[in-house]
Design goal:
There is one protein chain. By secondary structure, the protein is an all-beta fold. Strands 2, 4, 5, 6, 9, 10 and 11 form a seven-stranded mixed β-sheet that branches. Strands 1-3-8-7 form a four-stranded antiparallel β-sheet, with no helix packed on it. The radius of gyration is 14 Å and the shape is globular.
Length: 119
């Protein structure tokens, strides 16, 4: 089955860290542009970070810059989001989005992983 799946969410105190992972099955993430989105209760889905392919350029939302780091693990076929200095406003469901460019452009969404930051 061709899909992506997130893991690594949980409950953490403010100032703590979490590492989210997006794993793909059925295709290689190394050739895909991958993004992390989040959706807080009562709010729309917002882009948090992305990493391009080719090139590996990372981009971060202003709210994430300096605290979050996105990286690829091509051996494990995952893309990770290291989140440090977490704040209560980071509480949301985090979603992985992967855009596979071939054989035709296909977008994959995971089911999401809950991140809760307590104050």
């Amino acid at each position: 089955q061709v899909q992506v799946e997130e893991s690594g969410g949980g409950l953490v105190q403010a100032g703590g860290s979490l590492r989210l992972s997006c794993a793909a099955s059925g295709f290689s993430l190394s050739g895909s542009t991958v993004s992390w989105y989040r959706q807080a209760p009562g709010k729309g889905r917002e882009l948090v970070a992305s990493i391009t392919s080719p090139g590996g350029t990372t981009n971060y939302a202003e709210s994430a810059a300096g605290r979050f780091t996105m990286s690829r693990d091509n051996v494990a076929n995952t893309v990770n989001l290291q989140m440090n200095s977490l704040k209560p406003e980071d509480t949301a469901v985090y979603y992985c989005n992967a855009v596979r460019p071939w054989p035709w452009r296909t977008t994959f969404w995971g089911q999401g992983t809950q991140v809760t930051v307590s104050s």
